[in-house]
Design goal:
With about 70 residues, the chain is an all-alpha fold. The protein has one domain (about 5-65). About 65% of the residues lie in helices and about 0% in strands. The mean pLDDT is about 75.
Length: about 70
């Protein structure tokens, strides 16, 4: 359920939701952010490498799949 829908449901039930976005993110979220950052940089590295070698097939594989089939 999305944030908007959840808020509507709470309001319909007579509840007033309070959202607090303060403090450091939990460790699990930090790990997910680090993983996404790594994947983005890894993909960018291969796209730049593919662009430098003009290997279009490799660039397409990295863009759509996040890796080349030879990397697996």
């Amino acid at each position: 359920m999305g944030m908007f829908t959840r808020t509507i449901r709470l309001l319909e039930a007579g509840l007033k939701p309070v959202y607090v976005f303060d403090g450091q993110p939990p460790d699990l979220k930090k790990q997910e952010i680090a993983k996404r950052y790594f994947i983005a940089n890894y993909s960018n590295y291969f796209l730049l490498r593919a662009d430098a070698t003009e290997d279009l097939q490799e660039a397409v594989e990295v863009f759509f799949f996040g890796h080349t089939w030879s990397d697996k």
